[in-house]
Amino acid sequence: MISLTPSTLGAQMSSASLVKNLQSDIAQFREQSITGNKLDMAAEGPGQSALLIGLRAQFSRIESDMRSLQSFQSRADLKQQAMQSVEGSLTGVLTIAATGLDDLNETMRVSLQTAAKGALDELIAAFNVSDGQRFLFSGIATDRAPMQNFNQINPGTGFSPAQVIENAIAATPPVDAASATALLASIDQIFADTAAAGTNFEETFFNGAPTGSPPSQARISDQVIVDFGPEGNDQALRDIIKGLAVFASFDPAALADDAFPVLMKGAFDSLSSGLDGLRSGAARLGEQQRLAQSLEDRNGALKTILNERVVNLETVDPFETQVRLQALIGQLETSFTLTARIANLSLVNFIR
Known about the structure:
With 352 residues, the chain is an all-alpha fold. 67% of the residues lie in helices and 2% in strands.
């Protein structure tokens, strides 16, 4: 039987404690070797944990900004596509009209009316575009389609846009140049929202956020907010729809010869001005997209830098970890040997 003296017992307990600590360190380094990450940032030195928290917070803000930028770019691309999609049909109407503003033959008049009706339907469909969650040309009223179908009654007024134009024509029939000029003036009032109640553009033609509402904007970074491009009640859209409505709403064969050129020139000028305005709006939105792209590129570079710093703080050197792990294992083996020798110490063994 082995007899342990108090000093021998103390040595054995001290050795056992050392073994336990070594086993804990080995387990930690083995896990670090497997995961590649440091397990205790606080042990890495003062300020390291706070630095890592700050870097991760900055990283999260950049990721949030990038999601906002990507959302803006996606919606802006849809708006650009909508505007580009109608340019061909609008230009086609202008081309037909420009061939003879003063004297189109009957065949060309019918062709102009048909082209205008088609362009009007195409425009309304294009500007009712949605990203699946919001309508993009409605201003801040993103829950509803902005453009009323031309021949569909608006439940808010009881009129369709076509009926509003037809009623204006019936009230001021264009039988000569003077009455044609008066008719154009009454149609101008409709699209300026100064006509009789229920017949104005923002009452029957447009269902989005009315004039005077806060602008539709997008936050693309903590410090940068941009306008979200043209809306369905911008002057350019009013002018385009007005021009198309005039071209589309008359029986070409029934127009008096001296009224025809007045109406055609008024519609042509309105459509031409609106198309120029639409192109300018698309160009301004393109500038916002270029700004967003530059911010996205900058954030991408910052994200890479921050990620590298976080990785450098959090990850361990695999070579250093293996060296330290092997050293700890060597110490543990030595401790096991020492513990066994201490356990066998006794006065009897010593005096043999």
